[in-house]
């Protein structure tokens, strides 16, 4: 690992960094734990890269048939996950096997930025998908009238990437910073006591976790209640009731998956 002076100068561009920040004195995992992490990450990476990019390739191949906005969003989400697996899984597994960070200061920033950006972009995708499904269920006529316009599909795909880059770019320009996290990883300097850094930490927890989670809960909750109300409106026909129960179970499963995915992204990146 590079010297602390070199790291501070690279990340901050200044010599007035508070040396009392104990980021390099955080928990150091034993070599055996490093090997376990490295093996698991290598396995996940080997499986995740082809799976995500095969989904992306399938969407490209059948793009003329798959024109819905949800399809575009799923394709974009697969691309984000694939990028996370290529960069995050590969670099973190290598550093775990090496028991140190072998990619230097520049590699640390690149790794932390891409992981942070794709993590936030994943959350952005989940939010946009939940809002898109809400509009499709609660306003189906209006949704069908403008639902598949190419420009709206492009905007829907761009929004999560802008969201991810918005939060990930700030540490590159002095609001917080990317630095070493233990011996084998890099991330935001969560242990910094600087007021601006602490304020940024609160901002990202609200902006990339609590507000998106609240939006998804609201969207899927309203979808669930709309489907349930529609079932009561059209009577208790056995076939209709069975279809309604199937829809409710599917919505509940999708909602649980989305929430777990959101929590997983936050735990992985934060």
What does this structure look like?
The protein has about 270 residues and is mainly α. The protein is built from eight helices and two strands, in the order H-H-H-H-H-H-E-E-H-H. It has a two-stranded antiparallel ribbon. Strand 1 and strand 2 form a beta hairpin. It is globular and about 60 Å long. The two termini are about 20 Å apart. Residues about 1-30 have low confidence and may be disordered.
Strand segment tally: 2
Strand order of the largest sheet: 1-2
Structural class: mainly alpha
Distance between the termini: 22 Å
Number of helices: 8
Taking the sheet with the most strands, its summary is: 2 strands, antiparallel
Gyration radius, to the nearest Å?
22 Å
Overall mean pLDDT:
75
Task: Based on the model shown, name its key terms.
8 helices; mainly alpha; single chain; 270 residues
Give a short summary of the structure.
This protein has 270 residues and is mainly alpha-helical.
List the helices and strands and how they pair.
Blueprint: H1 4-12, H2 31-61, H3 69-98, H4 104-138, H5 140-146, H6 150-169, E1 178-181, E2 185-188, H7 195-233, H8 238-269
Antiparallel strand pairs: 1-2
């Amino acid at each position: 690992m590079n010297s602390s002076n070199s790291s501070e100068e690279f990340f901050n561009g200044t010599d007035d960094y508070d040396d009392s920040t104990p980021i390099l004195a955080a928990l150091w995992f034993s070599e055996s734990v490093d090997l376990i992490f490295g093996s698991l990450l290598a396995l996940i990476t080997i499986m995740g890269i082809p799976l995500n990019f095969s989904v992306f390739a399938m969407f490209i191949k059948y793009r003329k048939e798959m024109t819905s906005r949800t399809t575009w969003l799923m394709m974009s989400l697969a691309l984000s996950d694939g990028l996370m697996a290529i960069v995050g899984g590969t670099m973190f597994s290598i550093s775990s096997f090496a028991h140190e960070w072998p990619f230097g200061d520049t590699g640390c920033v690149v790794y932390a930025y891409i992981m942070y950006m794709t993590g936030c972009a994943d959350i952005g995708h989940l939010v946009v998908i939940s809002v898109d499904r809400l509009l499709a269920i609660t306003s189906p006529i209006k949704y069908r009238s403008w639902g598949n316009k190419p420009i709206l599909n492009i905007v829907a795909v761009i929004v999560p990437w802008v969201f991810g880059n918005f939060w990930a770019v700030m540490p590159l320009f002095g609001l917080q910073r990317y630095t070493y996290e233990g011996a084998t990883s890099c991330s935001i300097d969560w242990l910094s006591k600087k007021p601006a850094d602490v304020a940024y930490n609160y901002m990202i927890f609200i902006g990339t976790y609590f507000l998106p989670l609240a939006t998804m809960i609201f969207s899927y909750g309203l979808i669930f209640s709309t489907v349930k109300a529609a079932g009561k409106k059209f009577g208790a026909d056995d076939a209709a009731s069975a279809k309604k129960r199937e829809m409710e179970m599917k919505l509940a499963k999708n909602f649980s998956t989305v929430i777990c995915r959101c929590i997983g992204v936050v735990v992985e990146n934060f």
